[in-house]
Write a structure and sequence with these properties.
This protein has 267 residues and is of the alpha/beta class. Helix content is 34%, strand content 24%. It has 2 domains: 154 residues, 3-Layer(aba) Sandwich (Rossmann fold); 103 residues, Hypothetical Protein, Haloacid Dehalogenase-like Hydrolase, Chain: A, domain 2, CATH 3.30.1240.10. It contains 9 helices and 14 strands. Strand 10 and strand 11 form a beta hairpin. Helix 1 packs parallel to helix 9. The protein is globular, with a radius of gyration of 18 Å. It starts with a strand and ends in a 6-residue tail after the last helix.
Length: 267
């Protein structure tokens, strides 16, 4: 019996315009009523995840910053921040390649390039505000959860992810989270590791957990779950590790997967 569902948000739970159907919402509400723990796991900042949790009437902790933080309202339960030397190195690398960069420090999003198109696309529907500084390399860092590089060219983005994964192998987690986003977090910060923390927190076994997602950054999450669900709109890499490929996010695929693997068990 599945006792915990850990799901990505964008492209999985919510459509790309950040909307969802009543069918999808009602399916999550059914899980709440029968006591299944529903956990949101996203690359979003906490301020971008928590309103979604409220929308679905969830009272569970959330996994944010690509797995770098597990937070229950105002209480941080687990965190893996980037080390200072890694912060400086990544910022310099992205600066040298003229890549639009986001720095997430103490729950504040900093940019030094206020590109209106990129920032509008990123903030739309995500409840995010940001602060513009002259140079990200001069920001006084305390708890940097992640760094994000944005490239509006998928071929170049794939090349960046491949090169950076090799460069920082064993030192950082580098993943593609969106067709335009490359994310850098601490080596211990993944959605799968954060999910494991909550499994231990509640005393659940792997086979009691279902995970769902749509991008390569969700591969680790699925590998840490007993039931692995990829959306029809998912990356090929994620589909390759999934037990089940459900319909697309626009066709409420996650709701169908929940009915197949969880609600059917409840009779």
């Amino acid at each position: 019996m599945i006792k915990m569902l850990v799901t990505d948000i964008d492209g999985t739970l919510l459509r790309y315009d950040c909307s969802c159907s009543e069918y999808m919402k009602n399916t999550i509400l059914k899980l709440n009523k029968i006591g299944v723990k529903v956990v949101l796991a996203s690359g979003r900042m906490f301020d971008g995840v928590y309103p979604v949790a409220e929308q679905f009437e969830l009272n569970t902790p959330v996994i944010c910053y690509q797995g770098a933080m597990v937070r229950d309202k105002d209480k941080v339960l687990w965190q893996a921040s980037l080390k200072d030397d890694m912060i400086k190195d990544v910022l310099q690398t992205l600066k040298d390649e003229n890549i639009h960069t986001h720095l997430y420090n103490d729950d504040i999003l900093y940019v030094d390039d206020d590109n209106k198109q990129i920032m509008a696309d990123y903030c739309n529907g995500r409840f995010v505000n940001y602060k513009v500084v002259e140079d990200l390399r001069n920001v006084q860092t305390n708890n940097v959860s992640k760094i994000l590089g944005v490239i509006y060219d998928e071929e170049k983005l794939v090349d960046l992810v491949n090169r950076m994964s090799k460069k920082y192998k064993g030192r950082l987690t580098v993943v593609r989270s969106h067709k335009y986003y490359c994310e850098f977090t601490d080596i211990n910060a993944t959605k799968g590791v954060a999910s494991d923390f909550l499994m231990d927190y509640w005393g659940f076994k792997k086979e009691e957990v279902m995970a769902s997602g749509d991008q390569d950054n969700d591969i680790d999450l699925l590998l840490h779950a007993g039931v692995k669900v990829a959306m029809e709109n998912a990356s090929e890499g994620l589909k390759n590790v999934a037990d089940y490929v459900c319909p697309s996010v626009n066709n409420d695929g996650l709701a169908h997967a929940i009915e197949r693997y969880i609600l059917c068990e409840q009779g």
